[in-house]
Design a protein that fits this description.
This protein is about 40% helix and about 0% strand. The chain has 12 helices and 2 strands, in the order H-H-H-H-H-H-H-E-H-E-H-H-H-H. Strands 1-2 form a two-stranded antiparallel ribbon. It is globular. The N terminus and C terminus are likely disordered.
């Protein structure tokens, strides 16, 4: 443990892995390039329209992380909060109020701006052929791997929503006080009924922060240095909105130490209540222990679960446009709207 250092950590807000999107099934990953009339997602979708896409995204994310390590968690939370209400359609990026609703308070503005900065570079190189939704997925994937996490391939071909998610849908985002029953039920309703998805995606908290008000009271006296250190942050009067690292050992690295900390600090009140339940419930505790013991298993499952989430769609399906500005629909920007089906 002596080799572990405290560093400035990742992102603002509570990153809930219960983020899933609709009751529709996961879209099968196409292994060949779809034709222009298809709305199927494919890893080859932009191979002709923008062959330099992934190079642009990764280099821009890499440069941004050199300046702000918090962006990994910021992008992860942005990705989850976009996908949960109505599918991965970049509705969360629209400047029309969705980001201001209580479940989305604390989304990192630097992460939001990074997606738009990448879009500008991609469109300058390739024209308006890549959606903000695809860029969000790619940027999040690259931030994870650049921070020490797994590498994985994601399908592309999403379109951007021209409208925000409804208030009712946004308020389905589960709070950090959610019980395991509530989280498993939410996942099952989104066709993500495997508890491994819930637990693996909760591992994204390894690069996050949460407000002190999100944690319960510490059980018993703080008898070790780590507990004393992490609880001191939230012990001062008026500290409810103070941010505290979720992974208090390696908060800037994507690793499996959050699961190790969960197993060591169960029932101590220093972890999020929603995560604390995962280590005590028999339906999920074996996964927490397994991911703590084997980071390769965690990495493999995290990549699998992220791909599954990235393919989820709301009832509207993959319809919309390729925004010329991630913050405004093309209609509101005075730009002719793109077609309603994905094109290459």
């Amino acid at each position: 443990m002596s080799g572990l250092v405290f560093v400035v950590a990742a992102a603002v807000g509570v990153l809930l892995a219960a983020s899933a999107v609709s009751s529709r099934p996961v879209v099968p990953l196409a292994t060949s390039r779809p034709d222009a009339s298809s709305n199927e997602l494919s890893v080859y979708f932009h191979v002709d329209s923008c062959p330099q896409l992934e190079t642009i995204v990764r280099s821009t994310v890499d440069a941004a992380l050199q300046l702000n390590v918090r962006l990994t968690a910021g992008l992860l939370r942005l990705f989850f909060h976009d996908c949960f209400p109505q599918g991965c359609d970049a509705s969360i990026l629209l400047d029309n109020g969705e980001r201001d609703l209580p479940p989305n308070v604390g989304l990192q503005q630097e992460a939001v701006q990074l997606v738009e900065d990448i879009r500008a570079k991609v469109h300058a190189a390739c024209g308006p052929t890549v959606s903000c939704a695809d860029i969000t997925v790619l940027a999040t994937r690259d931030a994870v791997s650049l921070s020490g996490g797994p590498s994985f391939t994601v399908p592309l071909g999403r379109l951007d929503s021209a409208a925000p998610a409804s208030n009712n849908d946004v308020f389905t985002l589960p709070p950090p006080t959610s019980t395991v029953d509530g989280l498993l039920s939410a996942f099952a309703s989104k066709n993500l009924s495997d508890p491994a998805d819930l637990v693996a995606l909760s591992g994204a908290h390894t690069v996050g922060k949460a407000r002190c008000s999100s944690f319960g009271a510490v059980a018993g006296p703080a008898t070790d240095d780590i507990t004393r250190c992490v609880t001191a942050t939230c012990s001062a009067p008026g500290s409810a909105d103070t941010l505290r690292d979720l992974d208090f050992l390696t908060p800037a690295l994507f690793d499996n130490l959050y699961f190790i900390e969960l197993t060591l600090k169960k029932n101590k009140g220093v972890m999020l209540p929603s995560d604390q339940g995962l280590v005590t419930d028999p339906r999920t505790s074996w996964l927490v222990q397994g991911f703590a013991d084997n980071h390769w298993w965690f990495y493999d499952q995290f990549g699998t679960s992220m791909v599954k989430m990235s393919q989820l769609r709301g009832p509207q399906g993959n319809v919309g446009e390729i925004r010329r500005n991630c913050f405004r629909s093309n209609t509101n920007s005075g730009v002719a709207a793109a077609g309603t089906t994905a094109t290459s």
